[in-house]
Design brief:
- Two copies of one chain form a homodimer.
- Chain A has 204 residues and is an alpha/beta fold.
- Chain A has a domain at 6-34 and 96-203: P-loop containing nucleotide triphosphate hydrolases (Rossmann fold, 3-Layer(aba) Sandwich).
- In chain A, 46% of the residues lie in helices and 20% in strands.
- In chain A, helix 1 packs across helix 7.
- Chain A is globular, with a radius of gyration of 19 Å.
- The interface between A and B is large, with 37 and 37 residues.
- Chains A, B: Pfam families: Guanylate_kin.
- Chains A, B: InterPro entries: GK/Ca_channel_bsu (IPR008145), Guanylate_kin-like_dom (IPR008144), Guanylate_kinase (IPR017665), Guanylate_kinase_CS (IPR020590), P-loop_NTPase (IPR027417).
- Chains A, B: GO terms for molecular function: GMP kinase activity.
Chain lengths: 204, 204
């Protein structure tokens, strides 16, 4: 069984990352988003092991101490993180794992899993980004400005990624994501073990 | 203008490489097969600069002495080669260039143009390969055996390539080739210059 690959996908809010990743995974049985750990309270309807692994703060901090995370972050009073064991189990089963994380998480993952493939998604224009950040609710200009600042500081790190996609036309962007995933599976390193028998019979 | 990329595509005879490459280029205005130089006599209907650049043996040997070739080979009494100037002109114009060459040519090119992307195409089975080698004409078993030997010694070098494709279903193999080409265009190094204005306006 060929090991799966790890994909790290980042984008500013408003770039349409989650819709793209969901569509990517929906059409690919061998690709799935890795389920994160969090200390935030479970909301009605959320399923443990599907939405998140819900754990206590002390447990999360113990996992940090044990270096059990590929990446984690503290957002206000809650922790969010990707357990190394979650990802390694997927990869060992031949599944590709997708992490939807920010540039800081991506940096941590790249250090621990240098073979990961990282993709950054950009919105098609400043105007679209502002609109998408505004459309979420009826927010004050100050709130929008703060979100825009956060988006800009996320986008400032695009050059640290392997691939760059602009989400202008959703289907085009989705096809580009799919082409990237398909292409990683065609490398000699990934194909040779899978084609072992064919190659032996051709060269025999 | 972003520089084009150089693709090196190899396969044993009978793997269907030329049909795949032709179909790949037909759908892509920014991708073309590089026209080789040769000393073999021009055949009726062949167009210089389209089928080959036809040159005299002395001229070809002068070009070898001047290191004007990315790769060349002597086949019986004729020379065939890829002029560095031909490829560099294409790449500078933003075109991707495709070289259909054997593993020995591929090795020469990789040394001179390490940024090239190399792809090896395999036939789907030993039986199909034998059939395809036989179908060409009514050949003696000895001739077929010699072709099979040549095919095997070509295939023995598949592991030197970046990507490996099996040409079982033609359209599937073509889509895989297209995904590889599309993906190279999505790398940050290729996208960032093309998206310079968008990025400036997003970060500005």
């Amino acid at each position: 069984m060929t090991q799966g690959l790890l994909y790290v996908i980042s984008a500013p809010s408003g770039a349409g990352k989650t819709s793209l990743v969901n569509a990517l995974c929906a059409g690919a049985p061998d690709l799935a988003v890795s389920v994160s750990h969090t200390t935030r309270p479970r909301r009605p309807g959320e399923v443990p092991g599907q939405d998140y692994w819900f754990v206590e703060k002390t447990e999360f901090e113990q996992m940090i101490a044990n270096k059990a995370f590929l990446e984690y972050a503290r957002v206000f009073d809650n922790y969010y993180g990707t357990a190394r064991a979650t990802v390694e189990k997927m990869l060992a089963a031949g599944l590709d794992a997708v992490l939807e994380i920010d540039w800081q998480g991506a940096r941590q993952v790249r250090q621990l899993m240098p073979a990961c493939v990282s993709i950054f998604i950009l919105p098609p224009s400043r105007e679209t980004l502002e609109q998408r950040l505004r459309c979420r609710q009826q927010d004050s200009d100050a709130v929008i400005a703060r979100r825009m600042e956060a988006a800009i500081s996320e986008m400032a790190h695009y050059a640290e990624y392997d691939y760059l996609i602009v989400n202008d036309d959703f289907n085009l962007a989705l096809n580009q994501l799919r082409a990237i995933v398909q292409t990683q599976r065609l490398t000699v390193q990934r194909q040779a073990p899978r084609l072992e028998r064919l190659i032996a019979s051709l060269l025999g």
